[in-house]
Design brief:
The protein contains one helix and seven strands, in the order H-E-E-E-E-E-E-E. The chain is elongated. A hairpin with a 4-residue loop joins strand 2 and strand 3 (51-56). The chain is mainly beta. It has one helix spanning 8-13, and strands at 23-28, 41-46, 51-56, 73-76, 81-83, 96-102, 108-117.
């Protein structure tokens, strides 16, 4: 009888790095932004074009200057990182703000965050 074992740690370390680099959700919750939002704003993600649309309804924010320092809650693919970071203040006053997601392998995806005012 022949038995062969494996070193579990080496098996895990030989896996290739993940290429996943997606934003799963992007939201501005009122509880993270109590001074700048009157209600939460939920992002709609167009994955094919890497565009996240935030729809601000009347009464959801005090004024345009309140978009200067918002703290988005961002969920991303496992083992990836995002910049600017999750739950860090971001100035969303410009027409487009870019977020870069970097996979464990180093591959990047750039998402454009745009605003719509209804």
């Amino acid at each position: 009888m022949f038995l062969q074992g494996c070193d579990r740690e080496n098996d895990i370390n030989t896996l290739p790095p993940s290429n996943l680099r997606t934003i799963v959700s992007f939201n501005l919750y009122r509880f993270n932004n109590p001074l700048n939002l009157f209600s939460s704003v939920y992002g709609t993600i167009d994955e094919a074009n890497k565009i996240i649309t935030l729809r601000f309804t009347p009464g959801s924010y005090p004024n345009l200057d309140s978009l200067r320092s918002l703290w988005p809650q961002i969920y991303i693919a496992p083992w990836a990182t995002v910049s600017p970071d999750n739950l860090q203040p971001v100035d969303l006053r410009p027409d487009t703000v870019e977020f870069t997601v970097t996979a464990q392998s180093g591959k990047k995806a750039v998402y454009a965050v745009v605003k719509k005012f209804n």
